């Protein structure tokens, strides 16, 4: 079994709270209301994971299962070039790209190289999403001995399709069973290939819902059991966001503040 890796958000307060960053071989669930910034986190981590370990990354590539059509290459570009110059330079050296970070050609090459390492798959419905998680194992296996092995598996959003398709109390058990199998597959990729698994989840949106706590993530206990790290994301003033660690093994609960900016997530 390989050593557990830590993928940094590059936000000291958050990384400290996480004991160094998002762990490989675990599922991290990020949940929060719409617009809280869950997709911003999956994008930022898709950039950061590719960086060399000295820069907070894991020198790895990404499988990004996109169920709500949220993946934006332009956002990757903004976040990449929002990194500090020395980090960008290290990324160029790592990829043996000639030239300086001010050189347009070199920048284009660097961006293309980052985008190439994010394997995006759109999930059209929950069954397709389950299939893509099975397929993720094959992709991770294919890249296992490459220069950039898969070190991050994102599912954004984990629950949207399930929630839309399995409606009503009568479908709840069925939904949970399918979600459970899906999480098991995701967990397997993380464990077998030493990848961090990051999934997003919305909080129950209807405060008048007949059942369910409006401040609780969709999926209830089963999801709570499977995702080892659970983080609640909440809007604050302006572009500020509160990141709360709710449940983690061997770590105290805590809160950290970050900002969502044009150049990505910042302290
Ligand atoms: P949902 O549940 O609806 O998918 P989410 O939690 O995934 O929402 P995101 O799409 O990650 O939310 O975040 C949207 C927020 O991120 C916007 O409200 C905005 O504040 C911020 N944001 C997105 N893009 C930019 C940008 N280019 N510059 C600055 N802020 C941005």
Automatic annotation (TrEMBL):
User: Listed GO molecular functions?
Assistant: ATP binding; ATP-dependent activity, acting on DNA; damaged DNA binding
The yes or no answer to whether the keyword ATP-binding is present is yes
Key word DNA-binding present = yes
Give start and end of each RecA family profile domain.
Answer: 3-203, 208-267
Coiled-coil annotated residue ranges, if any: none
Q: Which residues bind ATP?
A: 32-39
What keywords is this UniProt entry annotated with?
ATP-binding, DNA damage, DNA recombination, DNA-binding, Nucleotide-binding
Give the top-rank taxon of the lineage listed in the UniProt record for this protein. Answer: Archaea
Which one GO biological process term can you cite for this protein? Answer: DNA repair
Which family does the record assign? Belongs to the eukaryotic RecA-like protein family.
Cited function: Involved in DNA repair and in homologous recombination. Binds and assemble on single-stranded DNA to form a nucleoprotein filament. Hydrolyzes ATP in a ssDNA-dependent manner and promotes DNA strand exchange between homologous DNA molecules.
Question: What's the name of the protein?
Answer: DNA repair and recombination protein RadA
- Name its species: Halomarina rubra
Please name the gene that encodes this protein: radA
Which part of the full protein is shown? 77 to 343 of 344
């Amino acid at each position: 079994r390989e050593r557990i890796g830590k993928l940094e958000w590059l936000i000291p307060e958050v990384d400290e709270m996480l004991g160094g960053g998002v762990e490989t071989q675990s599922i991290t669930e990020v949940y929060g209301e719409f617009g809280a910034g869950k997709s911003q986190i999956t994008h930022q981590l898709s950039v950061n994971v590719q960086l060399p370990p000295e820069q907070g990354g894991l020198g790895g590539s990404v499988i990004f299962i996109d169920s709500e059509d949220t993946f934006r290459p332009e956002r990757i570009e903004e976040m990449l070039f929002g990194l500090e110059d020395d980090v960008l330079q290290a990324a160029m050296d790592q990829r043996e790209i000639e030239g300086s970070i001010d050189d347009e050609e070199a920048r284009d090459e660097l961006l293309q190289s980052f985008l190439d390492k994010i394997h995006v798959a759109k999930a059209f419905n929950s069954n397709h999403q389950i299939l893509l998680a099975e397929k993720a194992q094959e992709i991770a296996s294919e890249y296992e001995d490459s220069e950039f092995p898969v070190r991050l598996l994102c599912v954004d959003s984990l629950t949207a399709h399930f929630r839309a398709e399995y409606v009503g109390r009568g479908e709840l058990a069925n939904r949970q069973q399918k979600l459970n199998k899906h999480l098991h597959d995701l967990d397997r990729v993380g464990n077998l290939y030493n990848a961090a698994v990051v999934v997003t989840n919305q909080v129950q949106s209807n405060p008048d819902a007949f059942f369910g706590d409006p401040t609780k993530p969709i999926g209830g206990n089963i999801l709570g059991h499977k995702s080892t790290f659970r983080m609640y994301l909440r809007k604050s003033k302006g572009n500020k966001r509160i990141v709360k660690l709710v449940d983690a093994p061997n770590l105290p609960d805590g809160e950290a503040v970050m900002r969502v900016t044009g150049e990505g997530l910042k302290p």
